[in-house]
Amino acid sequence: MSCRYPVFNPESTSLLFFSIEMRSILPVGDITETIPDERADIAVLEEPEHLTWYHHGQRWKIKFRRVIGVVHTNYLEYVKREKNGHIHAFFLRYINNWVINIYCHKVIRLSGATQDLPRSIICNVHGVNPRFLEIGMEKHRQQQQGKTTFTKGAYYIGKMVWSKGYKELLQLLSKYQNELSGLQVDLFGNGEDSEQVKESAKKLNLSINIYPGRDHADPLFHDYKVFINPSTTDVVCTTTAEALAMGKTVVCANHPSNDFFKQFPNCFTYNSGKEFVKLTLKALAEESSPVADELREKLSWEAATKRFVMAAELDKNVSEAIVRSASKPFMSISSQDLKKGVEEASAILYNSISGIEVARCAFGAIPKTLQPDEQMRKELGLAPR
Fold first, then answer.
1. Distance in angstroms between the alpha carbons of the first and the last residue of the chain
2. Alpha-carbon distance 113 to 115, whole Å?
3. pTM of the model
4. Which of 105, 80, 102 minimizes the C-alpha distance to 92?
């Protein structure tokens, strides 16, 4: 069977607006219009809930024969950190379930840090850039030659917002200053909370250097020995995977987002502040073990793609058609028919609500994003309305 896989990502399509209030990029209009019917075979929705919160138009499951959602973000955790967060998270949980059930045949959750969703499976289908694997292999060669491979201590790199683990890290370093005497941590990142992070570190009199963010593959990072990542809002932390690929030792929280990394001997997970201290000192004192070839391969995009194909069940028949028997009694209704009918009614209801401007805005949509304007339609080659 010949299949094409259009991939939709909120950060890569042209039908977009940025919501200042939600600090997020949201789609505009019906993205399915931009895909010719002859290419509508299998669709992979990166951030499926994000793409469908305000979707008004053709159902993805009607447009495409199979729709795979890949859940990247722990939206509930981020929402909980906002004002009245727990109330918003309560409603968001049900909305996410609603849209996923309507629009996706199968959902892949990168880790158990995300909410449970209909027809979902947990599988990390992310890989790292080959550059990081090459850096790790070079470090391995240096170790085999008896050379000193890591000459720097501990660091963390990530978007500099409190929710990315900076709050937890400063708390740990402040509480255990005596136990971690002599430890210096270098932080790299840009973000709206940069100044606050700097001020807090200064007030706490912590031995921390703060630098602007830069590419993690930059030679500046090659000689760091320990990557510290206390974040619990990530689903699967890309920088943790990159650090392991480079042969570093990682110290991170024992959290569902880090389950995939526990198979690596160089990944130390802690359950408490005291364990954080113990493992950090251990990581700094010991030589990082070379990553075995089979484990290094698991970090590659080739291995991630294989996991994706298996998890998405793309090797199976993607047809969702239900063959009905001609001898079936007129009034007979199977459980499958009933389930499909309920889903259809649910989809019609959601489509109706998402088409009302007042309702959309009440739930956080950007005003006048129900349809792209004429200029945007012209730029995308869509027929004028």
1. 36
2. 7
3. 0.83
4. 80
93: burial class by Cβ within 10 Å (0-12, 13-18, 19+)? middle
Per-residue HEC secondary structure of the chain comes to CCCCCCEECCCCCCCEEEECCCCEEEECCCHHHHCCHHHCCEEEEECHHHHHCCCCCCCHHHHCCEEEEEECCCHHHHHHCCCCHHHHHHHHHHHHHHHHHHHCCEEEECCCCCCCCCCEEECCCCCCCHHHHHHHHHHHHHHHCCCCCCCEEEEEECCCCHHHCHHHHHHHHHHCCCCCCCCCEEEECCCCCHHHHHHHHHHCCCCEEEECCCCCCCHHHCCEEEEEECCCCCCCCHHHHHHHHCCCEEEEECCHHHHHHHHCCCEEEECCHHHHHHHHHHHHHCCCCCCCHHHHHHCCHHHHHHHHHHHCCCCCCCCCCCCCCCCCCCCCCCHHHHHHHHHHHHHHHHHHHHCCHHHHHHCCCCCCCCCCCHHHHHHHCCCCC
Pick left, alpha or beta for residue 182 (phi over 0 → left; psi -120 to 50 → alpha; otherwise beta). left
List the chain pLDDT tens, one digit each, 385 residues: 334 444 455 444 456 666 666 666 777 778 888 788 888 899 999 999 988 998 888 899 999 999 999 999 888 888 888 888 889 889 989 999 999 999 999 999 999 999 999 999 999 999 999 999 999 999 999 988 988 899 999 999 999 999 899 999 999 999 999 999 889 999 999 999 999 999 999 998 888 999 999 999 999 999 999 999 999 888 999 999 999 999 999 999 999 999 999 999 999 999 999 999 999 999 999 988 878 888 999 999 999 999 999 999 987 655 444 333 444 554 556 677 777 788 889 888 988 888 888 888 888 787 877 876 677 667 666 667 7
Decide: 199 and 162 in contact? Cβ < 8 Å. Answer: no
